[in-house]
Amino acid sequence: MNKGRIKYADVFLTVFIEMSAVLLFLALLSSEAGPVTFPGAARGNRKVLTVGFFYGSSGSQGFEGVQEVIREAVLEYKRRNPDAVVQFEEGLRKEDYPEWLMTKYLAGKEPDVFLVGQAELQALAEKEMLMPLSKEAVEGGLYASLVDACRREGELLALPVMCDPEMMAVQEDLVREYAGELPDRSWQWGDFHQMCRQCTGTGREAGETHRYGVRGYTWEMAAVSNAAEIFDESGKHNYLDSRGCVQAVNFQYRLSALETDTVNFDSGRLAFSPMWVSEYRKYSSWPHKIEKYNSFSWSCTTMPAGPAGSNISRTELLSAAVSRRSSHREEAVEFLEILAGCRTVQQAVLDKTWCLPASEEILQEPSAGLLRGECLLFDTMLHSASVIRRFDGYEDLVRRIDTEIEKAGAGTENFEISLRRISRELTGNW
Fold first, then answer.
1. Is there a cis peptide before residue 287, judged by omega within 30 degrees of 0?
2. Mean pLDDT of successive 10-residue segments in the chain (430 residues)?
3. Which spans in 342-393 are helix H?
4. CA–CA separation, 20 vs 164, rounded Å?
5. Residue 294's closest CA among 264, 318, 267?
6. Which of 4, 84, 199, 295 lies 20 to 30 angstroms, CA to CA, from 228?
7. What does pTM read for this prediction?
8. Are 66 and 129 in contact (CB under 8 A)?
9. CA distance linking residue 155 with residue 248, whole number of Å
């Protein structure tokens, strides 16, 4: 009888603990919007640290799973500061977050510490609403290429948390058959063009479908791998008429005959396609690998290098910053450093998202299902990555430049003259 009572008591205790854990998790990551305090309401003079973040989504700039990284940071902050109170708005979607953050700023109710993309970072920096971190923050151990993108006019205004670089996806079966060998990680534009040309065409067998060299490769990608800047950090000045940009546009135009906009990489008839690391990681692992790209062998490698550059990848970057108006600066900076520098939190970037961490030490050993070669590739890419410096109106401006370049390609004007004209016109509009 006593054993039975003990048994039922153990079961009750187990259920109680599991239910408590579930309730705690739901309190932290509810799907309903609204202010949430973790782990409970503030009492007495306890300081309340407010944190701004969003729920990630799939695709470019989506940072799917970022809310799980914030959760790990909150738990670590609470472990270090048991009496602290962390408060945040729950259930914000990625597409709603920039407007929400700006609305909070206009109302004077912005969080103490919050996530920022490059566009938000630039907009808030122009308004001098971010606290400089040059003296307060520790940036050691983070990829320098990512830290540099958090500076404005020499001041460090944020710390990098996670990133999503571009790679080149390779249809290995097709490239081996028609080009003879796969590209190595130091390949150049000439290698890329030759392989695209070799893989483009229709076979001799009756009914064989057409093959294509590449889809989605842009002059911006070429410019970055040719060490050419396109805009300054504010977007108010451009360098379209630089030698590096002219070379990039000319190269992309040469590739246009080998490109397609009708066949996807999933068809197996495309030799090369730029791909975000988040997409590569997702669809090269179980169970997602059975959803796409499963009818042929494929891999990813570096972007091809231009004559004046190297195998540099563009990358999207998500950082975190502290409000200049925060009344809890010390606590906010501590939380910021936990997000960017705590090994547990940065490991969560690799384990719980499809992106890559900002901390250099995480990719030194295989984890999260990655092979040693993949970790080495990612680490090499991040040491030289070029962060896409987005700003207000960036997409519209790039589309306008694309249109002008297409017009130049269809006419008699050479690209050097065209880009010089486009550069002057854009500069005159600011």
1. yes
2. 40 43 43 44 68 89 92 96 92 93 95 96 95 74 95 94 97 96 97 96 69 95 96 89 96 90 92 96 86 92 97 97 95 95 96 96 91 95 96 90 89 86 78
3. 343-352, 372-384
4. 35
5. 267
6. 199
7. 0.87
8. no
9. 31
